[in-house]
């Protein structure tokens, strides 16, 4: 696997290293505490009627 | 105190980052002009959206046609073009893998924020006004953290596939690829932004984030 676009792709030796790193993945229960920044996205437009009007509700 | 985030990165993801760093002879991983352009463009767009400067957004992104007929897809395409052409293509040559990861991360970030209800919207996505309202409604640090999460996640997912990791380990649980972005990249972006104070200046904030990215990679690889 090779890449001509800057990342260098992955050599055969590196491929083996990557594969063996996942041969016995360890359970990481505490990762459940991670909060994705995506979950912090706020919704301005809550609803928007599609057919019958222009009513729009907005978060305070 | 925020070091605990780095302990939540899986050993496999650390190994993938080690490979990325080893192969990064051109120093493109973080010293990447397109990455800086992306951060600056997201910051500039945020400022214009917060201040409801639709005309300035249209001018900056060279959007033609009527605003009411401009969709998320058109807005995003124009935004990615602005990130790319901000840079001198003559001196950079072809688009690199890392440029690609940046542009993909920027599009994903806009999509997460502007097109939140994908079940309801048509294929072109929501309209221009709704897009900029939703974007301007967010905190800037959240926007930039999502972008960094997506950028790191794209690199990790690319290396996972390039290394044929799943093919070599068919018993891996199904969610590993998603976790590379939603756990490992989240841990890294959470660490980067945990004590970062942004001053909403595109240039200085970009430098702070890129410097912290480099330092964070160093910490991960030397732990």
Please supply descriptive tags for the structure shown above:
heterodimer, A: alpha+beta, two-stranded antiparallel ribbon, 17% helix, flat, B: mainly alpha, globular
Give the topology, please.
The complex is a heterodimer of chains A (60) and B (223).
Chain A: H1 12-21, E1 45-48, E2 56-58
Antiparallel strand pairs in A: 1-2
Chain B: H1 4-7, H2 11-23, H3 33-50, H4 54-60, H5 72-85, H6 89-92, H7 97-114, H8 128-136, H9 140-162, H10 165-168, H11 176-194, H12 202-222
Helix pairs in contact in B: 2-9, 3-5, 3-7, 3-8, 3-9, 3-12, 5-7, 7-9, 9-11, 11-12
Stretches of chain A where pLDDT falls below 50 for ≥5 residues?
47-56
Task: Give the % helix of chain A.
Answer: 10-25%
| Helical segment count of chain A | 1
Instruction: Name the quaternary structure.
Output: heterodimer
* Portion in beta strands of chain A: 5-15%
- Topology of chain B as a string of helices (H) and strands (E): HHHHHHHHHHHH
């Amino acid at each position: 696997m090779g890449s001509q676009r800057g990342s260098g792709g992955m050599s055969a030796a590196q491929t083996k290293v990557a594969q063996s790193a996942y041969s016995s993945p360890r359970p990481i229960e505490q990762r459940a505490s991670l909060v994705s920044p995506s979950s912090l996205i706020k919704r301005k437009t809550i609803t928007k009627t599609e057919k019958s009007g222009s009513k729009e509700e907005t978060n305070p | 105190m925020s070091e605990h985030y780095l302990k939540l990165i899986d050993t496999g993801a650390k190994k993938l980052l080690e490979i990325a760093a080893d192969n990064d002879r051109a120093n493109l991983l973080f010293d990447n002009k397109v990455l800086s352009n992306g951060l600056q463009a997201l910051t500039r767009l945020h400022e214009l959206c917060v201040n409801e400067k639709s005309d300035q957004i249209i001018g900056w992104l060279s959007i033609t046609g009527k605003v009411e007929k401009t969709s998320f897809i058109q807005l995003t395409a124009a935004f990615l073009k602005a990130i790319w052409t901000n840079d001198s293509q003559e001196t950079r040559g072809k688009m690199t893998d890392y440029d690609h990861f940046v542009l993909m991360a920027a599009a994903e970030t806009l999509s997460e924020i502007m097109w939140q209800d994908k079940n309801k919207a048509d294929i072109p996505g929501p309209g221009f006004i709704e897009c900029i309202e939703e974007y301007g409604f967010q905190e800037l640090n959240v926007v930039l953290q999502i972008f960094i999460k997506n950028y790191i996640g794209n690199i990790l997912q690319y290396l996972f596939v390039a290394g044929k990791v799943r093919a070599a380990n068919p018993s891996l649980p199904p969610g590993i690829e998603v976790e590379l972005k939603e756990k490992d990249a989240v841990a890294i972006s959470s660490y980067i932004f945990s004590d970062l104070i942004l001053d909403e200046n595109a240039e200085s904030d970009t430098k702070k984030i890129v410097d912290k990215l480099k330092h964070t990679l160093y910490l991960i690889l030397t732990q």
